[in-house]
Structures are given as structure tokens and as C-alpha cells.
Amino acid sequence: LTPPRxxxxxxxxxxxxGGNKYLVPWSTLDEFPLTRxxxxxxxxxxxxxxxxxxxxxxxxxxxxxxxxxxxxxxIMTFVSAGKLRLLREMxxxxxxxxxxxxGIEEASLESCCHRKLLHKAHQVAEMKRGDGEAELSKAxxxxxxxxxxxGDCMNKLHDMVENPESGIPGKVFACxxxxxxxxxxxxxxxxxxxxxxxxxxxxxxxxxxxxCRNMFIIETICVGWFSLEFILRFIQARSKWQFLRSPLNxxxxxxxxPYYVSLLVDKGPEGGRKPSGGNIYLEKLGLVLRVxxxxxxxxxxxxxxxxxxLQTLGLTIRRCVREIGLLLLFLCVSVTLFxxxxxxxxxxxGKGFSSIPASYWWAIISMTTVGYxxxxxxxxxxxxxxxxxxxxxxxIMAFPATSIFHTFxxxxxxxxxxxxxxxxxxxxxxxxESTTYFVGETHQQKDLRPSLG
Length: 453
Known about the structure:
A four-stranded mixed sheet has the order 2-1-4-3. It is mainly alpha-helical. The longest helix is centred in the C-terminal third of the chain and has 73 residues, at 380-452. The chain has helices at residues 26-29, 36-40, 46-50, 69-81, 92-102, 111-147, 151-162, 168-190, 194-202, 210-236, 240-245, 247-267, 278-294, 308-319, 321-346, 356-367, 380-452, and strands at 12-17, 20-25, 55-57, 62-65. The chain folds into three domains: 4-119, Potassium Channel Kv1.1, Chain A (2-Layer Sandwich); 155-266 and 295-306, Four Helix Bundle (Hemerythrin (Met), subunit A); 321-437, Helix Hairpins (Orthogonal Bundle), CATH 1.10.287.70. Residues 5-9, 143-147, 203-207, 274-278 and 436-453 have low confidence and may be disordered.
């Protein structure tokens, strides 16, 4: 076999990709020695050639590649003109696979196309990770059902506490959970009313009047339900450590524990005897109780288990940590810039701008376009600074807002598709189980017919 570069058409090489033929000078391929086309020039035998291409015609010195001809058209444009762009009518990830096959680096793409490819690759990676977690959960559930006699009960418990769409038990469980969250939030709000606060301050919670006692009973019932729900979720969890690391479960612990801690603190040391300095002790004890009871408002975060919108919000925050960090950085730099300026402009007036740290509050409120009106610049210089800070705040808030909104839309669509897949999987499982039961029952009837005959 004569090497390709020494054939009769030694100056050119014929490339056939999907039926489209290209006549390319060998000198052009010399500029890309690491690509698949550039490696053809170094082949000295038929075996070496077929390791790079799909087929080779010795008579016409033609190399055949069974690849996408539209993508190769862009590859040839890059080889000849040095411009590499994405195809609008072709999937971005498919074009990425073509680049890998031909040995073209992604960095060779034009900057706009490269950003689009990286963004799409990030989306695909996130979707694959979500699908992988779902498949892993299904596999673990299947293994558990096959390896233990309690597998069926555990799967039913998992569907009841984690998947409201699995059936009537799941819907009832979800409705009860939401109901107790609403009752808890209402009780927290009612407990801050002046009459009940005055009654709480008189004596211990357990020894107080009827209204306080009723509030305590309602809180006890709600915490009892939340504790039961947490225990059930912990029992059905495949990985206990992963369960405890979940953000929603950490919030549950922070919301439930204060009730039990407040019961222990409310009893006081050694059966209620107070140490010396009783007033200081009571003040500290009251502060601890107020802080612990304020943590009950964390129960409202439990609604995220049953709200796709809240789940999307949490996922968006997790994915946009970098954008949110940039927003805070821009805000801090701007506040540090405008607070001293407004202090210097309004120092003589003495209308609230007593120091630069005191001016930080005004700068934050102005840049976020809230404008409480508690601190108002009076001088012309101060008003110019205020106008500059407001315009800067609008621009700063707008820069990352577009990216965050785009991420929110994609996250919502992803969670919605994942929820639809889970629902279809549940319906398929129920249908399969019912079909299996029906077939088994039919076989039993057929087996009984001979004995009855």
C-alpha cells in the first residue's frame, strides 16, 4: 500500500463524509496535526488508516467517514477559514460529540458559541444528576423490596410520606402536614398578642391561665405530629446520614427541638429553685424561651415539601450562589462608596447622618430602592449623591437578575418534568402490580377447574 500522501494525487486528499466529498490540500491539514484529519497524513498502512476512518478506497485515494455531513461542513470551514461556529439546526451536545470525534477543541469555537455550549453542557449535567439520583433511589427501593420481607411496607411508607400523588394515603398525609403547619403559624402569631404575652410573663407556661394553657395544648399537638412525621421519614430513608444532611430535615430539627428544650428550661434547675441573683436568671431564662419559641416560625419552611414553587426557589438559590455573591459584592462596594459621600454632604445639617456607619443604613435602603424616609438628604450635594446611589442600585440589581430569573425558569421546568416522570413511574408500577395480580388470579382459577370438574 502506498502511503496516502505519496499517491497520484499527492497534493490533495479526498474526504467523503456521509456522501459529501471534499478535496482538501495536504498542506491545509499540516496546520492541524492533532486532529483526526491531520493524523491521516502520518498513516503508512491500511490498518493504520482504518483505525482513523471507516473505510478507504485505494484506487481513488478516498477516505470515508460515516459521520454527520452538516457538522463536518462547519469543521471544514474551521480548517480552511479558521472560523468555528455552532449549527442552529443541530443539537449543541451532538455538535460537541462531533468536535470530540474530529479532535477539535471546544475553545476553538467563537466566544458566543462557546458560551452557549458551556451553558447547555451545564444544564445537561444538572439534568443527568437529577435523573441519576432518581434512578439510584428507584434501584435502592427495588433492592430493598427484593431483599427484605418488610420491603413492601417500607415502599408504601416511602410513597405515603414522600409522594402525595402515590394514592389516597399520601394525599391525606400531605394535607395533614400542611394543616398542622398552618395551625402552628397561626398559633405563633396569636401568642404574640399583648394579653397572652402578659399572661406568659406572670408564671411558668404550664402553670399559667386558660388561654396560655390552650395555646400550649395546640403547640404540643402540632409538635407531636411533626415529631411523628420526622420519625416516619427517618425510618423510610434509605441512607440515614444523607437524610440528616438534607436542608429541609435540618430545618425540621431546628423547628422541633426548641419545644422540648423549652420544656426542660421552663422547669428550672433542681425542681424550680432559682439561684442567687434570681432577677438576672429570670431575664436570661425569658430571653432563651423567647428565642426558642421564635424558631417555631421555621415550620413554614415545611411547605417546601409540598410546593413545587418553593422547591424551585431553593434550587435556584443553590445554583445561583455565584450570582448572588456578585450581587452582594457590588452592593457592599457601592454602599462603602456612597455612605461617606452622603455623610460629608450632610454632616453639617445633622439630620441623622451622624457618622459613616449610620449612613450605611441610608445607602442600603436607597440602593435597593426601598426608601423608608427616616434619613433624607437636605443639601443639593446630598441629593446628587442620593440620585447617584439610586441609579447605581437599579443597575446593580438588574445585572444578575436576568441570570437568576433564567435559572429559575429552567429549574422550574426541570422539577416539573421530574415530577411528571415520577408520577408516570408510579402509575406504571401500580398498573404492573395490578396486572400481575390479575394474571396470577387467572392461573389459580385455571388450576382449580380440573379439581372442580
